[in-house]
Amino acid sequence: MKLEECLKRADETKELILKKNALEEIPAMLDAFFPANSGVCLVSDEHTHKAAGARVEEILKKAGINIAGSHIFPGEPRLHAEYSHVTFLKDWISSLPDWKNLVPVSVGAGTVNDLLKCTSSELKIRYMSVPTASSVDGFTPNGAALLLDGFKQTVPCPAPLVVVADIDVIAGAPAYLASSGFGDLASKIIAGTDWIIAEKAGSAGAMEAPAIDEIAWAMIQPGLLDALNNSINASRGDGDAIKILFESLAITGFAMQHYKDARPVAGSEHLFSHVWEMEDLSFNGVPVTHGHKVAIGTLAATAFTELFFADPKGPPEVPKGFTRPTKAERKAATEAAFKGSRACSRLAETAVNKMMDDKTVDAINQTFRDSWKEMRGRILERLLPYSELKRLMVRADCPNQPETIGLTLNDVIITARKAQMMRNKYTILDLAFDMGNFEGILAKIEASDIYLR
Ligand SMILES: [Zn+2]
């Protein structure tokens, strides 16, 4: 689906300017979409202020627009999406004169944008986003990914009213930010296969397993492979590749605005990254970006899905004598897996709540056995084979082995178990768990010399 059409389906963002010299359009956008404004307040960090914030200030001053304040977060250590920054920004903005009529403008990558998105929502004012990198799909959705009580959560909040993305600014961002965006875009492959799986499981009674929404699907899935292939050179500052990458990521956010949930854009691969976000994963002292974590999560989920659907005859064998765990066993296993985490008891509660009764689980399993040929065909049609996905990641300078983000194969295996426990959202991990072949697939990944190597 074309960008204009996707924008029409998004009910919160009214305009996306994506072109060279887009910054020059900010005054006109303020006029057109925030007519009653008494000026702006800007939020950036030291890097993004240098990359675009200073220029935005110049443009605003030249246009005679009041800049009521400008908050610049330190560049180092890298800014985290901690809720405490939202509390700070709320106090800061509401201390500015006539703040209810100001337009907050975020000039930055994903974190600055998410912080101001949540802040604006809590202050009940709309904001403008000026992205400085195509690093993440989080610029346009109606939610902000924030760390709250040690737990990465998507806090519901309105999307930016207007997004002004300057291709020259974005092309000038460090390469790792573009490859992060590439990783986040690649994750939509698994978001798609997991949705196919969820829909089928949902038809047999699974929880949190909705039917596919044709519009959200049409926005993201049909053009996904082309978008990935055409954005490979984004990390090398190629303007055309940057444009495609940014636009594709923005559209995934519009699909969320349309669908009002992350199902169209995130599946099991994001659950891996959520675990590493909770654990504050760093490599050589530098926090690993969301998109780089998602890239490895996407490889892991692809390996898992490929192995699950490998046999044309039917699902992987269940070990002899397998029995599903009781609720008490599940609670104990989850508490052990997340021991030391502030969110431990909450996660254990989720893992227990998502357990279905035996009758439902049997019905889901039977549905997949009965429709194996059809389901396998649909999944393999969408799933990019692991070898091809890895080749794409290599070409896009994206992390493509656990070690490239400071993890081992064993870490990823342990993460898969946690990923299955942590959210009530039906994915391939739940299907394998319910069918009794979850551990068997992990063992196959460990024994292979292809997957996650
Ligand atoms: Zn993401």
Task: Please render the helix and strand layout as text.
Blueprint: H1 3-9, E1 15-19, H2 26-33, E2 39-45, H3 46-62, E3 67-73, H4 83-94, E4 102-108, H5 110-123, E5 128-131, E6 143-148, E7 151-156, E8 162-166, H6 167-171, H7 175-203, H8 214-220, H9 224-230, H10 239-259, H11 268-278, E9 282-283, E10 286-287, H12 290-308, H13 327-337, H14 344-353, H15 358-370, H16 372-382, H17 386-395, H18 409-422, H19 428-435, H20 438-447
Parallel strand pairs: 1-8, 2-3, 2-4, 4-5, 5-8
Antiparallel strand pairs: 6-7, 9-10
Helix pairs in contact: 1-10, 4-5, 7-10, 7-12, 7-15, 7-16, 8-10, 9-10, 11-12, 11-18, 12-17, 12-20, 13-14
Spatial ordering of strands, largest sheet: 1-8-5-4-2-3
- The H/E string reads HEHEHEHEHEEEEHHHHHHEEHHHHHHHHH
CATH architecture of the largest domain: Up-down Bundle
Estimate the helix proportion, in percent: 40-55%
Structural class: alpha/beta
Attached small molecules? zinc ion
| Radius of gyration (Å) | 22 Å
Largest sheet: 6 strands, parallel
| Global morphology | globular
Short description:
By secondary structure, this protein is an alpha/beta fold.
What does this entry look like structurally?
By secondary structure, the protein is α/β, with parallel strands linked by helices. It folds into 2 domains: 169 residues, Rossmann fold; 223 residues, Up-down Bundle (Dehydroquinate synthase-like, alpha domain). 54% of the residues lie in helices and 11% in strands. The protein has 20 helices and 10 strands. Strand 2, helix 3 and strand 3 form a beta-alpha-beta unit. Helix 7 packs across helix 15 and helix 12 crosses helix 20. The longest helix has 29 residues. The protein is globular and about 75 Å long. Bound molecules: zinc ion (ZN). Zinc ion (ZN) binds next to helix 12.
